[in-house]
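Subject: Sanity check before I submit

Could someone independently write out the structure tokens for this chain? I want to compare against mine line by line before I put it in a report. The sequence has 553 residues.
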Amino acid sequence: MAKLVVLKFGDVSFNQGFAVTLQIGEESDRPTTEITGRLPPCPEMPLYYTRWQSSYRQIGNTFRLDAEKIQVTNVSITQSCQDLAHVLQARFNTWLRSEEFRPLREKWLEKLMPTDEVRVILQTDNSQLQRLPWHLWELLERYPKAEIAIASPTYDSIPQLRTQNQKVKILAIVGNSQGIDTQADLAILQQCQNADITFLVEPQRQELNDFLWRQNWDILFFAGHTSSQGDDVTGRIYLNKTDSLTIHELRYALKQAIERGLHLAIFNSCDGLGLARELADLHIPQMVIMREPVPDQVAQEFLKYFLTSFAGGESLYQAVRQARERLQGLEDRFPCATWLPVICQNPAQIPLTWRQITPPIKSKSQYPKLHWKLGIASSVIMTLAILGLRFFGVFQSAELQAYDQMMRSRPDEGSDPRLLIVTIDDADLVNQRRSGQVLKGTSLSDQSLNALLIKLQEYQPRAIGLDIYRDFPAELPELAQRLQKTDNLIGVCKGSDSTVMTKGIEPPPEIPKNRQGFSDFLHDPDGVVRRHLMFFTPETASLCSADYAFSTQ
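---
Independent answer below. Compare away.
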């Protein structure tokens, strides 16, 4: 089962350090492990990020940023950007290996296996902490099926009252496309299987508002220019060449869409943390955004890779990780492309897969009256087929294996204190021979057997079973008389013996038939003894005429 890991950061700062709580548990269940720790002060961390961010934004790629801020010149500082990225990554991991944070790291390694599928949620309101490259955390990279998402410390679960759509309903909004190619996004969306897509190209504000209110949407997609403002507090989307608006200005329509089943918002545009923060206040289940300005080609390739994985059956987190890692092939032209995509998660919601968004709807039969007849006929046919196969022993091997497993699974009942078992071992044989006793076709001489019976009778047993074949008369007169007159003594014989092709083994001649029992048993076809005979009618020519089993007697 998938694991859920939550890292909660206290409301402090890089100058004072952060209190951190780590929670680990099964997906869709309460955490079973919780531990607290700290990350020490690191006031230079935001500076490292700012230096890298400044270098990245000066590369001059065609970003899906506010059209007025699009770079028109290309400064060749790609190598500088990559160098600063390495410095930031190294310093970031050094910070996470600090001594104060070690207990959380060790607990993580103790509870999670590298083969686990892990959803990691980073809960913090600190926008600088959210922007750090958490996907490059050395510990996280040990888990190939782990992906990290950011979340607000404040969240709520919104009951979604919706009717299931026959296909995944996607509202695809194409905003202001000045200087970028959004047609590629549309072409990629149109290739989605089992999807009903509505396209709004450079819509007016009222038109977008009406569409959000009008239908039950599963996924909201936006391609175009966006930007974050006010330290990532708000986000702005540019609908067309003249109109733009914030999430707050669309909140009623978005809130209605979320309550009616909107599960995922994808902003394939620039600098989406401001958008994510405002949408988190509306408690949308999931978002996929770009944390920094995204080059046009990177946005298109990410969308293609993500939809291929997500619609192909991967979980949301695995689909984002696979799509993000595949962007590495573009980093010779677009440095740090793998840094851009990030999931924003409502911790109260469990991500759905593509197939779970719209479960298959059962079609109504054109012939409902035939349902019960078909059901009865099918049941009768299957029952007869199973009974026939069982009659001919087709299932016998599997049934016997299941029976054996159940017998082996029983608890040990221990020995019965009412029973005494007297055994004869090699040492007893040696002692009898040394004392001059004669062992005639048995393991117990007449003298030893007589002494044993005398000893046992002192304890007044309910019954004595002599499980030794004695098909010859006793030479000791005292033993012969004792065998004949001991009413609670049961002798043994054998009705047949296929191993030596005889008609069995005779009982002790001194013991009458009413105190005799046979030792025969049955083998199953696989050679295993599972059944016990209690009585049978002996063959006419059998040397053993006992009607009851030795144990029954």
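---
OP: Matches mine. For the report I'm noting this point. The chain is about 30% helix and 15% strand.
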